[in-house]
Amino acid sequence: MKKLFLATAAITLMSVGASSAADLAARPYTKAPPAPAAVGYNWSGFYAGVMGGYGWSDRVRVDGFTTATNGDINGGFGGGTIGYNWQAPGSNFVWGLEVDAAGSDIKYSETGFFGLVPVTAEDKIRAFGSVTGRLGVTAGAALFYVKGGYAWADNRLSLTIPAATLYSQSKVHSGWTVGGGVEYMFAPNWSLKGEYMYADYSSERYGDVVNGFADLGLTTHTVKGGINYHFNWGGTAF
């Protein structure tokens, strides 16, 4: 009788356990959410920045003739940049317009003596700038570009002695410029750039009826570095 009771209890417990297990709802399978799609860099929008660098000239035009200067016209400069970029979604190509201007110490000077008095002749580019179009292609966070357009330079010729200026005349030269560079987005809204530009400025007539006249033109090379802030940054790949 005792064995029958134990057997009956065991069967009952097994039946209840099986019934409870059957009543448990099957755990639903939940698929893991997909990883967020990688967001690329979009360069569209306004930007502004500062830049500076070094410039030199390898030739000067006087009265239509070209004279080598062996890099004697050289010096530093610093200024600012503003611009706008267009980049279609999904495209690696970037179009843009850019305006820059800089104060300059690019110059050539030579001092001689008139008797015992030192006399200094100087040719100095006091400021220059450009309005250019840009075309670039992106590679990750980098933008490789070429640019070209209008260029201007404020040039001054002077003749001085320690106590006075004997002669000084400034002209604004207009011409063209072409070059290229690379810009790198190192943080949201911020980019660094390096750039080389070549400029060819038109001739302007310097002088007066006493000293005579001469047509002077100039070509320059500049290398610069800069940092830009992008107001409408469209990438979040940081």
Can I get a quick summary?
The chain is mainly beta and 238 residues long. The chain has one helix at 2-23; strands spanning 45-56, 59-62, 65-68, 74-86, 93-114, 117-139, 142-161, 164-187, 190-208, 212-230.
How do the strands and helices of this protein lay out in sequence?
Layout: H1 2-23, E1 45-56, E2 59-62, E3 65-68, E4 74-86, E5 93-114, E6 117-139, E7 142-161, E8 164-187, E9 190-208, E10 212-230
Antiparallel strand pairs: 1-4, 1-10, 2-3, 2-10, 4-5, 5-6, 6-7, 7-8, 8-9, 9-10
What's the order of the H and E elements?
HEEEEEEEEEE
The largest pleated sheet is described as: 8 strands, antiparallel, barrel
Secondary-structure class: mainly beta
Report the uncertain regions: 1-14, 16-22, 35-39
Helix share, percent:
under 10%
The rough form would be described as elongated
Our estimate of the beta-strand percent is over 45%
Number of domains: 1
> What is the averaged pLDDT score?
82
CATH structural class:
Mainly Beta
User: Ends: how far apart?
Assistant: 78 Å
